[in-house]
Automatic annotation (TrEMBL):
GO terms for biological process: chaperone-mediated protein complex assembly; mitochondrion organization; protein quality control for misfolded or incompletely synthesized proteins. GO terms for molecular function: ATP binding; ATP-dependent peptidase activity; serine-type endopeptidase activity; single-stranded DNA binding. One of its GO terms (cellular component) is mitochondrial matrix. Pfam families: Lon_C. It comes from Nymphaea colorata. InterPro entries: Lon_proteolytic, Lon_Prtase, Ribosomal_Su5_D2-typ_SF, Ribsml_uS5_D2-typ_fold_subgr. Residues 1-55 form the Lon proteolytic domain. This is Lon proteolytic domain-containing protein.
Amino acid sequence: VKEKTIAARRSDVKVIIFPSANRRDFDELAPNVKEGLEVHFVDNYDQIFDLSFDKEPPTEGQEK
């Protein structure tokens, strides 16, 4: 988890999705490693899908 988080920061990734089982490892990271990241912990693929794709249809003026 530490290596993946550091690699994400180096690549300017702002959002990370981890399995819920990795929450403890992530929580143990130093605050400066976690800073500026939006992190989600999921139990199944449906949660990944919901986070990755907007469920709402686009409103007028938005791309489809």
